[in-house]
């Protein structure tokens, strides 16, 4: 089975970059990415490649190479479904905000709508690939919807979870540790293997049954997040014992069984995946009555929330137990560097805590626009939009953010923060001048040498 036409439903953070690379590496396969969101599709089609809706280093080059050749972005979902041999479903699966499983289970309504649309439109056999991260056994529901169309079309379902990390999406796609394909039908699996074999060595393409593939994605994210929570728990212990968390990370990371990656203590992990996937894992475990398993993984989230609150409370405590009316500059709002994504960013929750204490927060992030920052705060519903705009100011110039403030909090590890003129900044700040480094980004001896009071996680 040779794939000639691929359609991807959902032109988001996952679908857009993944399909761009598949098209780049398979010039003979026509790849069409569709989305209901017209503005998003227009941005993917923008002649100015700096206006792509997803900011990823190197993505403009990939899109520039393939777009118009064999990569297309469109809002005509039905046409793209009709034409395709293979359909990737890459729509959002947010945590449910209502009903059973509220706050934990994944909301599968967008997935179900896609399946129903495919069922309604398809006239020829299709391979349907789950790309979105889904609860284990979602393929069963998909299959049931697709198989009951009664129009004689055969559907094969594959699970092909995405492991790309934001900010490194293009290099992760070009050079993946592994590609995982779960399925039941050997020919369908082989068809997708061939798409990836265009650039991924065969021994890095793993095939499993459907349920293992679906579950592996959740488990990979849970393990990664668990490492961050583990080291963050130790950061608190370091602060009271005089140990240094970076030294501990280094010492344990040299053990090849532990490994050095994902041991950087921080103000807490964010991003669209970690929390959502763990909550999902917890929900699934609970739904099978596996209480000990559910409690075990839930602790990863509890510790992460604790780390964010702890960071905010340390600011309040250090600023003489009150931040009321004080100006606190935030450097960074994105959940990590090199991305404009703010989903579940620690900055949102740290700000919320300080705003509860009536602090004034001045935010500078090199990639996140003001509207997004206000949207994130409004979404919490802690206070009115007017109140958020009264207490939070967003500026485009870091020196403007820092001028005259009582304290600086570093929330994202943007490289540029290191090279600021910290001597000049010190002159404009209130004295004593406090720096709360949630990313352990600055050099302690240099910053203290300039006369700052410097606090870093885990020291
Ligand atoms: C993650 C997974 O890495 C990826 O495989 C999956 O497909 C999606 O989820 P992403 O959310 O883009 O990717 O970011 P990641 O680099 O994993 O970082 C997640 C969060 O953990 C960030 O807030 C980051 O700052 C934090 N982190 C990461 C730490 O605090 N310390 C670390 O050592 C590593
Ligand atoms: P992810 O990070 O998983 O890629 P995003 O929210 O960035 O998630 O992107 C998902 C995209 O899927 C959104 O642009 C949304 O408009 C699109 N989408 C959701 N449901 C449908 C649907 N039924 N048909 C087409 N596009 C859809």
TrEMBL record:
<dbReference type="GO" id="GO:0006065">
    <property type="term" value="P:UDP-glucuronate biosynthetic process"/>
</dbReference>
<feature type="binding site">
    <location>
        <begin position="91"/>
        <end position="95"/>
    </location>
    <ligand>
        <name>NAD(+)</name>
    </ligand>
</feature>
<dbReference type="InterPro" id="IPR017476">
    <property type="entry name" value="UDP-Glc/GDP-Man"/>
</dbReference>
<dbReference type="InterPro" id="IPR014026">
    <property type="entry name" value="UDP-Glc/GDP-Man_DH_dimer"/>
</dbReference>
<dbReference type="GO" id="GO:0006024">
    <property type="term" value="P:glycosaminoglycan biosynthetic process"/>
</dbReference>
<dbReference type="Pfam" id="PF03721">
    <property type="entry name" value="UDPG_MGDP_dh_N"/>
</dbReference>
<dbReference type="Pfam" id="PF03720">
    <property type="entry name" value="UDPG_MGDP_dh_C"/>
</dbReference>
<feature type="binding site">
    <location>
        <position position="40"/>
    </location>
    <ligand>
        <name>NAD(+)</name>
    </ligand>
</feature>
<feature type="binding site">
    <location>
        <position position="166"/>
    </location>
    <ligand>
        <name>NAD(+)</name>
    </ligand>
</feature>
<comment type="function">
    <text>Catalyzes the conversion of UDP-glucose into UDP-glucuronate, one of the precursors of teichuronic acid.</text>
</comment>
<protein>
    <recommendedName>
        <fullName>UDP-glucose 6-dehydrogenase</fullName>
        <ecNumber>1.1.1.22</ecNumber>
    </recommendedName>
</protein>
<dbReference type="InterPro" id="IPR028356">
    <property type="entry name" value="UDPglc_DH_euk"/>
</dbReference>
<comment type="similarity">
    <text>Belongs to the UDP-glucose/GDP-mannose dehydrogenase family.</text>
</comment>
<feature type="binding site">
    <location>
        <position position="35"/>
    </location>
    <ligand>
        <name>NAD(+)</name>
    </ligand>
</feature>
<dbReference type="Pfam" id="PF00984">
    <property type="entry name" value="UDPG_MGDP_dh"/>
</dbReference>
<feature type="binding site">
    <location>
        <position position="257"/>
    </location>
    <ligand>
        <name>substrate</name>
    </ligand>
</feature>
<dbReference type="GO" id="GO:0003979">
    <property type="term" value="F:UDP-glucose 6-dehydrogenase activity"/>
</dbReference>
<dbReference type="InterPro" id="IPR001732">
    <property type="entry name" value="UDP-Glc/GDP-Man_DH_N"/>
</dbReference>
<feature type="binding site">
    <location>
        <begin position="264"/>
        <end position="270"/>
    </location>
    <ligand>
        <name>substrate</name>
    </ligand>
</feature>
<feature type="active site" description="Nucleophile">
    <location>
        <position position="273"/>
    </location>
</feature>
<dbReference type="InterPro" id="IPR036291">
    <property type="entry name" value="NAD(P)-bd_dom_sf"/>
</dbReference>
<dbReference type="InterPro" id="IPR036220">
    <property type="entry name" value="UDP-Glc/GDP-Man_DH_C_sf"/>
</dbReference>
<feature type="binding site">
    <location>
        <begin position="273"/>
        <end position="276"/>
    </location>
    <ligand>
        <name>NAD(+)</name>
    </ligand>
</feature>
<dbReference type="InterPro" id="IPR008927">
    <property type="entry name" value="6-PGluconate_DH-like_C_sf"/>
</dbReference>
<feature type="binding site">
    <location>
        <position position="343"/>
    </location>
    <ligand>
        <name>NAD(+)</name>
    </ligand>
</feature>
<feature type="binding site">
    <location>
        <begin position="335"/>
        <end position="336"/>
    </location>
    <ligand>
        <name>substrate</name>
    </ligand>
</feature>
<feature type="binding site">
    <location>
        <position position="439"/>
    </location>
    <ligand>
        <name>substrate</name>
    </ligand>
</feature>
<keyword id="KW-0560">Oxidoreductase</keyword>
<feature type="binding site">
    <location>
        <begin position="162"/>
        <end position="166"/>
    </location>
    <ligand>
        <name>substrate</name>
    </ligand>
</feature>
<feature type="binding site">
    <location>
        <begin position="132"/>
        <end position="133"/>
    </location>
    <ligand>
        <name>NAD(+)</name>
    </ligand>
</feature>
<dbReference type="InterPro" id="IPR014027">
    <property type="entry name" value="UDP-Glc/GDP-Man_DH_C"/>
</dbReference>
<dbReference type="GO" id="GO:0051287">
    <property type="term" value="F:NAD binding"/>
</dbReference>
<feature type="binding site">
    <location>
        <begin position="10"/>
        <end position="15"/>
    </location>
    <ligand>
        <name>NAD(+)</name>
    </ligand>
</feature>
<comment type="pathway">
    <text>Nucleotide-sugar biosynthesis; UDP-alpha-D-glucuronate biosynthesis; UDP-alpha-D-glucuronate from UDP-alpha-D-glucose: step 1/1.</text>
</comment>
<keyword id="KW-0520">NAD</keyword>
<feature type="domain" description="UDP-glucose/GDP-mannose dehydrogenase C-terminal">
    <location>
        <begin position="329"/>
        <end position="444"/>
    </location>
</feature>
<feature type="binding site">
    <location>
        <begin position="217"/>
        <end position="221"/>
    </location>
    <ligand>
        <name>substrate</name>
    </ligand>
</feature>
